[in-house]
Structures are given as structure tokens and as C-alpha cells.
Amino acid sequence: MRIFVTGASGFIGSHVTKALLAKGHSVVVLAIPDDPLMRLQDVRISFEVITGTLSDVSILQQALAKFQPEACIHLAWYAEPGKYLQAAENIQSLTASLSLLNILLKNGCRQVVMAGTCAEYDTDFGYLNESTPTRPASLYAAAKLSCCLLGQQLAAQEKINFAWGRIFYPYGHQEDKRRLIPSAIDALKQGAAFPASQGEQIRDYIHVEDVAEAFCVMTEKQANGVFNISSGVPVSIHQLLETIGNLMGRVDLIHFGALPYRNWEPPFICGNNSRLKNLGWQPSYSLIRGLSEAIDWASQQRDSQ
Questions:
Q1: Which of the four, 189, 195, 243, 268, has the lowest number of CB atoms within 10 Å?
Q2: From CA 105, how far away is CA 158, in angstroms rounded?
Q3: How far is the CA of 74 from the CAs of 10, 62, 104, 178, in angstroms?
Q4: pLDDT (tens digit, 9 = 90+) per residue, 232-273?
Q5: How far apart are CA 235 and CA 202, in angstroms?
Q6: Where along the chain do its domains lie?
């Protein structure tokens, strides 16, 4: 298939791009000017690049009219750790996403797959499936949900397939170092203390390569509707960090209870992934395997510096 990918230089997007190439698809990605595409250097000769942003409507119209994508996987969104939840940039991302969808529709694209978030749900329900009521508690989640609802309506009018993948808690190699798992690994590698809460909150962690495979399957199977991209396995933050500590032999450096819980944190978030499994997708990473690979990758990065 001819597949257009946005956000390809990001954590999830780079893994999606590599997975698509490994399956033999023809891939064109959108990259901002001067983006070195560092996460994709090992496959750089295997795909083409449109240089620009989602706001460059004329560039996108011209490039996509030439490429004529059969499918699009849209992952680009403002997501700077520590800032994205209430950032005004979410409105810009929403507007740009809807503009992109209109361009795709004009150029005959028949399959659009976009990235959502588990934060769209009313997390009071705990174990979440696609029919769980939504109740976004941040500007980020509200903008994502708005994109989903508007995208579904626009796609329905044109009778094309529109799949929305609600991602739970992705992790894995090449993750931003400011996020929980890589920051814990980095601290323990340096022999430094890692302050944490008591860690009783439950989350659904899913390896980034399983996330990438989910986007590939939704695209190839011409999926329509909302799909949870989750492991379906609840794990406490305490268990998560303790596992990292045990794998690295430095569990003593994790100081549970040193930090308070954040006021907005729900106590339990886990996703039912049966709808995605019905498409033929299966997660392949256990938490132990995924964390072990993340630790090994971090070690290799430090050794090469």
C-alpha cells in the first residue's frame, strides 16, 4: 500500500514507519524542515520525505496529489512531556488534523488511521472498553476526543474508513528521557536515587512495537471505528519501578513515598483490547521482556557516548 505517515520522527511514529517498511509498504512521511529524523537513520533510504508542517496546506496538497496515498496514519500532535496536557498547542493540533483529513479526502485516500488517547475516557470506570463513556479531564484529551468525533463524521460523509486508536501507556527503546521509565533507568544507571510516590496507582503499559503493529493492522485491515491499543494487563507503578530496580540490581535506589500523588491521577486505568485482537492483532511483549530491552538499549546509548 501507499501510506502517508505524520509524526514519523516521534517515539511511536518511528516504530510505525519501520514496521510499515518491514511489511513492504511504500511510505512517505511528513517532516519539519531540518528534522534529522534521528530515530529513522537506519532506514532513511527506504522512504520519501515531504518537508513541511501540517499548516503548510499548499505543500501537502501538491505532494499528496502526486503520491495519491491509499492510507494515512496520522500521529503528529503536540506532546512535550510536562507541558502538553493543558497546552494551547492542542487546539492547533486539532485544527491541523482536520485540515489534513480534508486534504486526504480530496486526494482519494480511503483509509485514515489516527492516534487518540485513553485519557479521552471517564477513568472512573477503571477497566475501559470502547463503549465506556468519555470524560476528558485535560485540554489534550478534549482536543483528541474532538478530533475523533469530527473525523468520524467527515469520513462517514465521504464513505471512507476512519479508525481511531486510543493508546494507553506506551514505553520502549527511544522513548523521551523525561518520561517515567527512561528517567528511572537513567537514574539507576548513574547510581542516583530515584524519588517516587508509593506507586499504588494501576496503569496499562504497552510496548511501543506492539503499538506500531496495532497501527499497521488497523491500516491493512481497513478498520473503522475506535480501538483500544492496550496490553490489557494492569500493573501498579510500584510493581513497574520495582521490576526495573530488580532487573538492574538497584532497587534500593528507588525511594517509594518520596513524592506525593498528583491530584489529577486516577487510581486505575486498564484497557480491554479484544476489539483490536478481533482484527488479528496480538501483543508480543511481556513487561519483563519490554523493560529488559529498554534497559539494554539505554546501556548501549551510554556506552556509545
A1: 195
A2: 7
A3: 12, 18, 11, 24
A4: 999 999 999 999 999 999 999 999 999 999 877 899 999 999
A5: 5
A6: 2-170+206-229, 173-204+233-269+286-304
Q: By C-alpha distance, which of 234, 180, 174 is closest to 209? A: 174
pLDDT band at 82 (very low <50, low <70, confident <90, very high): confident
Shortest CA distance to 201 belongs to which of 172, 169, 167, 229?
169
The pTM score is 0.96
Q: How far apart are alpha carbons 150 and 141 in whole angstroms?
A: 14
Chain centroid offset of residue 207 CA: 10
> What SS3 state is found at 279?
coil
- Rounded to whole angstroms, the Cα distance separating 20 from 185 reads 29
> Cell 537513520 appears where?
41
Q: Collapsing DSSP states into helix, strand and coil, what is residue 292?
A: helix
- Calculate the average pLDDT of the chain: 96
pLDDT at 303: 54
Check: CATH 3.30.565.10 for 173-204+233-269+286-304? no
Q: What is the DSSP letter of 119?
A: G
Of 141, 137, 139, nearest to 88 by C-alpha is 139
Our CA angle for 109, 110, 112, nearest 5°, is: 85
What one-letter code names the amino acid at 144? Answer: K
Cα-Cα-Cα-Cα dihedral sign, residues 225, 234, 177, 258:
positive
**% of the chain at pLDDT higher than 70:** 99
The CATH number of domain 2-170+206-229 is 3.40.50.720: yes
Distance CA 303, CA 127 (A): 41
User: Which run of H or of E encompasses 6?
Assistant: strand 2-6
Judge residue 182's burial from the number of C-beta atoms within 10 Å of its C-beta, 0-12 exposed, 13-18 middle, 19 or more buried: buried
